[in-house]
Design goal:
- The chain is an alpha+beta fold.
- It has two domains: 94 residues, no CATH class; 104 residues.
- Helices cover 52% and strands 14% of the residues.
- The strands form two sheets. It has a six-stranded antiparallel β-sheet.
- α7 packs antiparallel against α9.
- The protein starts with 14 loop residues before the first strand and ends with a helix.
Length: 217
């Protein structure tokens, strides 16, 4: 008893959130392999992978929301808890976890990064859309000038409404439909350029909304 000492608990966080991300099974395996873990196992949709070689041979079965255990580190791709978790905290395990999270983050798309920050522009867009759309309905007056002013305010709701609905649809797809880890043996033109196509659609929708607004002014 006399030889025991009080030890300081490391104050660093034991988990690193990943938030919105969609990663190919090949990229996931490349990241894990580069860290040279002695033991790697995984679970996904009732399937158990007993080794890293087992995962490499069955990449298609990794698609979905797997959990990967790499020694003292676990990588979770669950829809509501995407994170790199450290079971046994040491400076080495913390450094590896940070490195894994950084490599996954580097593969985020522009929409993943936007979704991570969505509250900063979705809430203002929603408030502008609702206030400008419902504002005229809350006022009862026969003043034609004032009614025209309110109509102009309502017209300005076109842009935030189109943008809000478009982004909401994209974010809904990202969270509920697309796979967090995916596997595609081959990728066609659509898959390779999906992000550019979506950006073009958003810009087109905004352009139509802006043109319609100015046509009515």
């Amino acid at each position: 008893m006399g030889d025991q000492m009080v030890r300081e608990v490391l104050s660093k966080s034991s988990e690193i959130p990943l938030r919105s991300v969609s990663l190919s099974a090949d990229d996931l395996l490349t990241i894990i392999e580069s860290k040279h873990f002695e033991k790697v196992t995984a679970r996904n949709d009732g399937m158990v992978f007993d080794s890293f070689e087992d995962m490499k041979k069955n990449k298609a079965l990794l698609a979905g929301q797997p959990n990967v255990d790499c020694g003292d580190i676990s990588i979770s791709f669950d829809s509501y808890l995407r994170r790199v978790w450290i079971y046994k905290f040491t400076n080495e395990s913390f450094g590896l976890a940070k490195s894994i999270a950084a490599e996954i983050t580097q593969r985020k798309t522009i929409f993943d990064r936007a979704k991570d920050k969505q509250k900063y522009f979705m809430i203002p867009l929603f408030l502008i859309m609702v206030s400008s759309s419902l504002g005229p309905l809350a006022v009862k007056t026969d003043d034609q000038n004032y009614l025209k002013y309110l109509k102009n305010i309502s017209d300005y709701s076109i842009i935030p409404t189109v943008l809000f609905i478009t982004l909401y649809t994209i974010f809904y797809y990202m969270h509920y439909i697309r796979k967090t880890v995916y596997y595609r043996p081959t990728e066609g033109f659509l898959r390779r350029n999906l992000e550019k196509i979506i950006v073009a659609v958003v810009c087109t929708a905004l352009g139509i909304g802006i043109k319609a607004l100015f046509d009515r002014l």
